[in-house]
Every structure is written in C-alpha cells, then in structure tokens.
Amino acid sequence: MRPLESLLSLANVLAVVHLVIPPLRTQRWTHHLGPIALLAWVLQVVFEGFRWQLVPAYLLTGIIMLFWMLHRGARSASRTAGVPPNQLVLGLGVGLGSMGLLIATGLPLLFPVFRFPAPSGPYQIGTLTYHWVDESRHEAFSADPTARRELMVQLWYPAHADPASRRAPYVADARVFASMARLLHLPAFMFSHFRDITTNAFPAAAVSDRERTYPVLVFSHGRGGYRQHNTFQVEALVSHGYIVAAIDHPYAASGVVFPDGRDVRLDPRMMDRQFEDGIIPFLAQDAVFTLNQLSALNRTDPNGVLAGRLDLQRVGIFGVSLGGEIGAEACRQDARFRALLSMDTWMPHSVVESGLDQPSMWITRDAASMRRERWTEPDIDRTLRTMRSVFERKASDGYFLQVPGMFHQDFSDAALFSPATSLIGVTGPINGARARAIVNAYSEAFFDRYLKGLAEPLLDIASPLYPDVLFERRPK
Questions:
Q1: Which of 1, 90, 415, 460 has the most CB atoms lying inside 10 A of its own CB?
Q2: Is 359 within 8 Å of 450 (Cβ atoms)?
Q3: CA distances for 136 relative to 83, 139, 253, 284, 286, angstroms
C-alpha cells in the first residue's frame, strides 16, 4: 500500500478495535478515532487519488463516523439520564466494523499499487516515447485505402538522473487495458489503478556518459498485450547497458492510445489463428520500420536526448508469445537483427521452413506445465515442436530452455499485479520472483555474449545456480 492508504487502513483498524475492546472505550484519546479516520480518508483522496479498491475502506470510514456520532450521542444521553450506553449501537458497530475491515484491507492488498524491483545493473534508466508513421505501408487492419501504419514506440536507455526526480508511470493511460479487460470478462475499471504505478525510469533523463553508445534491443509484446508488459525485463536489461525500444502494435495490442487521443483496440480477428498466422509478416515489418526510425533518431532526436547514442551495429530483438513470433519473422526478414530471444511461443511457418541464421534463444516450459495451465494438446505440440525444429537445425549458436512450473504469464509482469495470481492460475506454481530472476539472468547473458562479446559461463552448461532450468545448446 502507499503511505496514505496505509494510514487510512490503520485509522480504520484502530477505530474498529476501539469498538471491539471495551477497556479501550475508557481511554480519552480513543474518543477521537472517528474524526482521525475521516481526516485520513480526506488526505488519501486529495494527495494519492481515488481508486476503486479503496471504496470499502471509504465506506467503512463513513460507517465509523456514523457510529462514532451515535455512540457519542448515546454516551451523552447516558450521562444525562444515568443509563448505560446503547448496547445495540455498540453491537452493530462491532459487527459491521469487523466485516468492513476485512474487505477494506483485503482489496488493496489483492490489487496493490505495486512497485517494480530495483534493477540489478549499475545504470539508472531514462525513458521517452515516440509516435511514428510509416508512410510506405497501408494499414492492413483498416479498410480505408489512405490509412497508413502508425506506431507508438517507447525507448528506455541508460541514464544519469537525480534519484529524487519524478519517476515515469507504468502506463500513462489505463485505456490500454480495455480489450484485455473484455477478454478476461472484467470491468474496465479493474485496471484503473495502474496509472498510479510508477517504474524505475525517469522521463527524458540525460543519457549516461559511461559509454559513448549502447547496443539496441527491440521488444515486441504478446497478443492483446501492451508495450510495457515486460517492464521487469526491460529495466533489468537497460540497467546493464542496453537501449530498449518497445513497440505497441496497433490492433494486435489490448489498446494503443495515440497523442491525439485516438484509442485503437484489439482487432477481434487476432483471436483467429489463421488470421494471426497470416498477419505475422506485416507485424514483423513494424520491427523493421522501428529499426529504420531508430537510425533516423540516431542522426537527429527531436527531444535532443538520444542522437548519436545508439549502436545500430549491435541490435537484438526479443518478445513473448505473439511478440516472439514477430521477433523470429523480423530476423528472417532483416539481417540487421543480430540476435533473437523468443519466449513461450510457436515459430511462424516461414521461420520453420527457412531456419534462422542469427544466434537464438528460446525460453519456454515443459509440456506438463502447459497441461497444468490447461493448454490444448495441439497448442502444446505446435509450441514445442516448432521451437525445437528451428533450434535443432541451427548452424549458428542456439539455446533451448524449459522451466517447469512457469505459466505463460510468468514471462511478463503479471505476477506483480496481485499476490493471488498463482492461486487463481494466472501464473504458475513457480515463485514469481524466481521466474523473473531466471528470465533476466539468461536474457542478459545471451545478449551480453552476442551483442557485447562478453564471456558468459551461464550459457556454456546447465548452471547450479538455476537447477530448475532444463538447458540445451547447439552446437553441443
């Protein structure tokens, strides 16, 4: 919980406990707990903002104030008439207060304004977002012949910043979750508190001067996802000296909000596997176009921050789910992508047919974990068979990792959303922090070896640090 949320909860707890424990009612200072709870409510709404998870806490504060006034009136009457205070008022206060307290404290804990773990690398993190239009491509999702393909691309980079400066929000507009909420059969407001979550990045911070240039990674999100959904991984990579460009793929993302306020939602056709397979080459062109735009940005940055700081001779690409397919196809289309990390997805038919020349890593899980997540047998077969097919025919270096106990959403930020994600089957039985540590360790080692030329013993043999990872490499 945030500080004032905690203060509000504490004030409510003390007020209810005051009603439950008779001896406390004789303490003069406890007679002011009702107004104290009300003050905490006002401070929280004014300075931290309203959020739906606190509605029960707000209602509980109102109930506390009501019973505080009734009890105060009863005490005055008892002193005047010489009769005991109204025990019914106290009983109702205890019952309603205890029930309300359970709900009021539980919801904010189940749906927290969470914090991202501090990245392990030596660099601070800056971020900027760009709106780019590809005039050479018609928008394949639109029937309008004049529509051009537009992208929102967020860059994170090694930075020098004042630690006391304002942090960048996780998402600037919660509308990006609209389609995701619909797919999950949840009301859209369920994700409204995400706008209050901050990251470890600083908006428009100066680039770190430790290196003249930094290698570049392009990130592609999953179907119905959003560009920030692997922030834990992006921040870890940037803290170790990479510039990461994350693409929002309009119509394949849950929602993309453009600077003029347009909100582009997930196209329902993306739920059809045949349509999805056919659109992969077009979506891969988003990555190629982004790389072209990064070249232009390296010459002239309208923000005056990143020009001359991108090493475009050392470029990799990574993605999860649909994004892993896009990354593989982008590598097939454009040799400027020198390394691929693809997570928990099948490979496009074109890549299975042609193979990949670039060093590649696949991180997924075993079939038993997929069955536990209730994946269908055809999806399990296609995922493992196509990844292994491309891995086993590689002439260049390849790595195939399986992590039993991980679910599909363990490859994203989802485990941070609620402590209950594993209980309801959104994430797997593996500890969320452990899953993130595995993904970060191997993704950093992979790109360090193939983009920075560093020796990485983690990629040589199965590591005793990660005995739960089933590790294979080619050549053996």
A1: 415
A2: yes
A3: 86, 10, 22, 15, 12
- Confidence (pTM): 0.86
pLDDT of residue 14: 76
Q: What is the pLDDT of the chain when averaged over all its residues?
A: 89
- Which backbone phi and psi does 16 adopt, to 5 degrees? -70, -40
Distance CA(50)–CA(355), nearest Å, equals: 52
Structure tokens, 294: 């990064």
pLDDT exceeds 80 at position 92: no
* Cβ atoms of 314 and 300 closer than 8 Å: no
Q: 208: number of CA atoms within 13 Å, CB side?
A: 20
214 forms beta bridges with: 310
Would you give the end-to-end CA distance of the chain in angstroms? 49
Confidence at residue 81, expressed as pLDDT on a 0 to 100 scale? 47
Element (H, E) at 155: strand 148-160
Contact present, 439 and 450 (Cβ < 8 Å)? no
If pLDDT is split at 50, 70 and 90, which confidence band does 2 have?
confident
pLDDT in tens, 435-444: 999 999 999 9
Residue at token pair 């940005």: 297
In contact, 303 and 128? CB cutoff 8 Å: yes
Distance CA 360, CA 327 (A): 10
For residue 216, which amino acid is it? V
Are the C-beta atoms of 169 and 141 separated by less than 8 Å?
A: no
For the chain, the domains span: 3-110, 124-474
Q: Which fold has domain 124-474?
A: Rossmann fold (3.40.50)
